[in-house]
Amino acid sequence: MSLTIQNVVFACPGNTPESYDRGARPVANFYAELLGMEILREDWLVVGNESGVRLAFGDGPIDYQPPGWPGGGQQMHLDIAAPSTLGAQLLQDNGEWQVYADPIGHPFCLVPSDRAYIRRIVIDCPDPEALALFYSALLDRPLASRVVLAGEPELAFQRSTSPAPRWPDPAYPQQVHLDLSTTDVPAARAHALTVGAEPLQTGPHHHVFADPAGHPFCI
Fold it and tell me: Is 0.85 topped by the overall pTM?
């Protein structure tokens, strides 16, 4: 049994196909062009390549509000290498890398590169070292450092005092979450509980858990 990151799922304005054109579709098109990906699904907008982590859009409450980085409670973001910003809004210039906002306000970090790819998925939390150990055990990934897990893309953790999501409470919504895939769902669910995940919902097609910092993820 193994668990791998299949999708990084972004909350968008609206969560139905009828509302995609005002929220999910523009941001899906943006990331597809930025990363040289293609749209793989139209019923639930998913972009990706033949292999690797995919990005999905359209999940979240109708009254979605962007994180408002740096003061608005960012929960998770991508570190991206790419040759262009596609006109994304610059939030902060740190020299070697910059912080931008996508078309609906999710922040991402960008390093100029001839090749476009996702370098890291970065999760905000009160205790980065503890959360790194949790995900290392959950995903069976070795630690590259105290707060970074090896792999493609890397999974990294940074300290934050922002309020954690409390799924499914709409007053504390998740902005981004992970979908994990496995070939053995019962074993994966048992494993998640063993390493310290909190069960939130059991469904016919996926099961929702929270990590020790409150971030929901699906198996």
Answer: yes
